[in-house]
Amino acid sequence: MKLTPTPGQTVGPFFGYALPFAGGEDLVDRTHPDAVRLHGTVYDGDGVPVPDAIVELWQPDQRGVIPQEPGSLHRDGYTFTGWGRAAVDATGHYSFTTMEPGSTGDGVAPYFLLTVFARGLMDRLFTRAYLPEAAAAVDQDRLLSSVSEERRGTLLATRDADGGLRFDIHLQGELETVFLTYPNTPQFTGPQG
């Protein structure tokens, strides 16, 4: 029997009630001595906040080690798994409590890997949020230096007065965030355990 392909389906809106889980945005407790807030707003092509997106965060620890710990969905309060998921609020805002990542090797500036799910997307989107200090070392990071200078700023978080990090995500338009593709990536991403 010959099977014919079916058309792709947009992401959502099911994720608003099916994917968020209690504590998903807290990679570390707010009382952790190195806790930092990474937050921002997801915008559509018209610059309007998207009220029903999900943002996932993947990151190494402060030493640049990529955690291989199970249990991302069942936080135990002390094991850093390097993964979190946050639903945006009604104004498109997301927030994570985490630690600043370390570099994973020579020529790699520290960054957070973010995955965005939102209505109207045929697949999830990948981007990176580099620490603001990466701007000074742009020539040393292969990916960041490969992005044109006028678009590079869309990959740089900004530092809040309280030391937190702000990273807005623009899905389209003049300020569109640079999105990445990864060859041989399965069509679903998620934690194990």
TrEMBL record:
It comes from Nesterenkonia halotolerans. Pfam families: Dioxygenase_C. This is Protocatechuate 3,4-dioxygenase alpha subunit. Belongs to the intradiol ring-cleavage dioxygenase family. Residues 35-103 form the Intradiol ring-cleavage dioxygenases domain. It is an enzyme of class 1 (oxidoreductase). Keywords: Dioxygenase, Oxidoreductase. Its EC number is 1.13.11.3. The lineage of its organism: Bacteria, Bacillati, Actinomycetota, Actinomycetes, Micrococcales. SUPFAM superfamilies: Aromatic compound dioxygenase. GO terms for molecular function: protocatechuate 3,4-dioxygenase activity.
